[in-house]
Amino acid sequence: MLRYIYADQLDQFPRLAHTMFRDRAVQFKDRLGWEVSVDYNGHERDEYDDMCPLYVIWELPDGTHGGSMRFLPTTGRTMVHDYFAHLTGGVHIESPLIWECTRFCISPRADDMRSCAAALVLGAGEVMRRFSLRHYIGVFDPRMARIYRLYGVSPDIIGQAGSGAGEICVGLWQMQDGAWAKTYARLGIEAATSDQWFKASLQTLNAKTPAQAETATGSDWCADIVSRHEHTQHPVF
Amino acid sequence: MSGALESIVNDLEQANTLEDFQRITENLRDYYKLDHFIYHWVNSVGERFGAGTYSTEWVDRYVEKDYLRMDPVILGALQRFHPLNWKDLDWSSKGAKAFLREAIEYGVGNQGLSIPVRGPSGQFALLSCNANTNDEAWAEFIDLNQQSLIIIAHKFNERALDFDTGFDNTIVNLSPRELSAMALLARGYSRSQAAHDLQISEHTLRVYVEGARHKLGALNTTHAVARALTKGLIVV
């Protein structure tokens, strides 16, 4: 099933989260050779994982990670802006209607990679439709382009740099109206199933209850937001 | 998108005082035919500023009871970046239920939508609107208006930040690509013609247009073209 989980709710799914960060290490470090850092747990994590992103995760029947991606709004910090602005010709892509999608990952354990990718396309579409977004932007490895094409989610490339293994692209995605039916068919599900999956995630889309929030450690991003507020003066109005 | 909404947004663009904000929330409430419309600047030390259509009695009550610390809408939005349908929030605690009952007694709608907005250095604001209606009607309202409300929420916050810093950022800097895209659209080119002219895909063109729309604080492409022309950024 598809799950929609904000970072601060991942601890409710330890197996799913552990296998997701492991699979990301396999895909981005081992297979694509990106300069990403992998911690002592074998987890590939970066600074954006600490900014309370939204993950869309395809869960395999055994409760492990089948595929995933990560979303952050372009009105805040994004990878494209922080590290790849030179690829977009200096255009700072920022709009509340455009979110950044990064770390599109498919698990080597997924025996049906096609339906796994279809599930992620569906999840991205649901997020776009329900939250009234227009586009996703993201950095990707051109070696993935063939795979994206195969799954019918070819991005529009708006910038690229480097060559060979070091080549990197910035792409744009949009969910075409015609893509929904194909995606349901690939997964062998009806729209109602997707709706059920989304509704089942309402709790992990919601903020933690106050009781839990109070016990949260100071290291997580959400606590950081609160502490930054404390130091900010608002002499407005 | 109607001209009436565009003129409210143009008004918002010029807003310089809390009174302006107040008038605009009232106009938006009337435009969308809702019960209430609120722009709310929040911080964790319990300070709140803003403008909105709630009764003085409810605002006083809210402040007196320090509801900011337990309001499920505020708590839910602090850590999230997607629009929040109030119905989907966690109202399970006894305190939250009592709070909602009381809010409704004071005229707050039973259905609501809140858009979280984050500015620089952890600044945080919320645009909320609500009405007394059923689930289906509210879902339909969201479906129809959520996107324009997201745009308006960010517009409110931009103006509020301007008050804050005293910096007038009505000077808009469009990138060369954004300018070319807008100029072609202003000349009446279709999207595909403009994309062809710029030798980019239509999809990419849409992103330049969206970027320009956001920078111009416009509601849609036509509105953005009009603004770019008014500001003299492009000439036809």
UniProtKB/TrEMBL annotation, chain A:
<dbReference type="GO" id="GO:0061579">
    <property type="term" value="F:N-acyl homoserine lactone synthase activity"/>
</dbReference>
<protein>
    <recommendedName>
        <fullName>Acyl-homoserine-lactone synthase</fullName>
        <ecNumber>2.3.1.184</ecNumber>
    </recommendedName>
</protein>
<keyword id="KW-0949">S-adenosyl-L-methionine</keyword>
<comment type="similarity">
    <text>Belongs to the autoinducer synthase family.</text>
</comment>
<dbReference type="GO" id="GO:0009372">
    <property type="term" value="P:quorum sensing"/>
</dbReference>
<dbReference type="Pfam" id="PF00765">
    <property type="entry name" value="Autoind_synth"/>
</dbReference>
<keyword id="KW-0012">Acyltransferase</keyword>
<keyword id="KW-0673">Quorum sensing</keyword>
<keyword id="KW-0071">Autoinducer synthesis</keyword>
<keyword id="KW-0808">Transferase</keyword>
<dbReference type="InterPro" id="IPR016181">
    <property type="entry name" value="Acyl_CoA_acyltransferase"/>
</dbReference>
<dbReference type="InterPro" id="IPR001690">
    <property type="entry name" value="Autoind_synthase"/>
</dbReference>
<dbReference type="GO" id="GO:0007165">
    <property type="term" value="P:signal transduction"/>
</dbReference>
From TrEMBL, chain B:
<dbReference type="Pfam" id="PF00196">
    <property type="entry name" value="GerE"/>
</dbReference>
<dbReference type="InterPro" id="IPR005143">
    <property type="entry name" value="TF_LuxR_autoind-bd_dom"/>
</dbReference>
<dbReference type="InterPro" id="IPR016032">
    <property type="entry name" value="Sig_transdc_resp-reg_C-effctor"/>
</dbReference>
<protein>
    <submittedName>
        <fullName>Putative transcriptional activator protein TraR</fullName>
    </submittedName>
</protein>
<dbReference type="Pfam" id="PF03472">
    <property type="entry name" value="Autoind_bind"/>
</dbReference>
<dbReference type="GO" id="GO:0006355">
    <property type="term" value="P:regulation of DNA-templated transcription"/>
</dbReference>
<keyword id="KW-0238">DNA-binding</keyword>
<keyword id="KW-0804">Transcription</keyword>
<dbReference type="InterPro" id="IPR036388">
    <property type="entry name" value="WH-like_DNA-bd_sf"/>
</dbReference>
<dbReference type="InterPro" id="IPR036693">
    <property type="entry name" value="TF_LuxR_autoind-bd_dom_sf"/>
</dbReference>
<feature type="domain" description="HTH luxR-type">
    <location>
        <begin position="167"/>
        <end position="232"/>
    </location>
</feature>
<dbReference type="GO" id="GO:0003677">
    <property type="term" value="F:DNA binding"/>
</dbReference>
<keyword id="KW-0805">Transcription regulation</keyword>
<dbReference type="InterPro" id="IPR000792">
    <property type="entry name" value="Tscrpt_reg_LuxR_C"/>
</dbReference>
